[in-house]
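Fold it.
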Amino acid sequence: MADIEWYRQQSWDQDAASNFEVRLSRARRRGEYLRIQALTLADTCLAKNARPAIELAKRNLERDPEGIFAAQMHAVIARASVKLGDVEAAIVAYRDAVRLEHARPNVRGYYYLEFAWLIAANSISDLYDEALEAMENNKADQGLIFPANQYRYFASLAFIAADTDDMSTARRKATHALTAASAERGPFRRLPAAGIVKSEKAFHRQRLELLAR
C-alpha cells in the first residue's frame, strides 16, 4: 500500500483500521489524516463505512472543535447518520455544521442546503421554519450558480410549500428545481460537469413533476 493511500481507504475492516492507527501514530498532522479518512469513508455512501466515518470525524473534532474544517466533519457525521437511518443524530450534526459554516462565510460546503433537503425531503414539518431560516440566512449567489445547489434549494422550497398548502409557490419552485436538474453543464467552461445534478431519486423527480404541472 502506497503511503499516499493509507488515509484514503474506501473500505474499512479490522486490518484497515489497524493499519490506519499504526500509520496515524507516526504522523504529525494527525487531525488532517483523521479528517481525510472520515471524509473518504463517508463519500463512499456505503452503510458499512458510516460508523467508522462518524468515529473518525468525532476524533478530528475533539482535536479542533472550532477549526476551519469543523463544519465539514459535522456534515460527515450527519451524512453517515442518515445512511444509518438515524435522522435525529443527522439533524443535530447538521445544525452544528450550519452554525460553523455561517461563522466562516469564506469556507463554503453549502451544508445548509443538505440540512434543508433532509427536512424537506422527509417531510419533517415541525422543522420547516428552521430549514427556511437556514436557507435564508446562509444562501449566497456564488453558491447558487451550481445546478446541484439550485436543485436542492428550489426542491426544498417546493416540498415545504406544498406541505403547507402554498401550491402556487410549490409550482414555481418545482419548475426551477426541474430546470436545474436538467442542466448538462456547470458554470465553469473547463470543468463542465462540476456542480451538475449527477443523481436524482425517481420519487423526488416524480413529486417535482407533479407539483410543476
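The CA atoms of residues 13 and 116 lie 33 Å apart.
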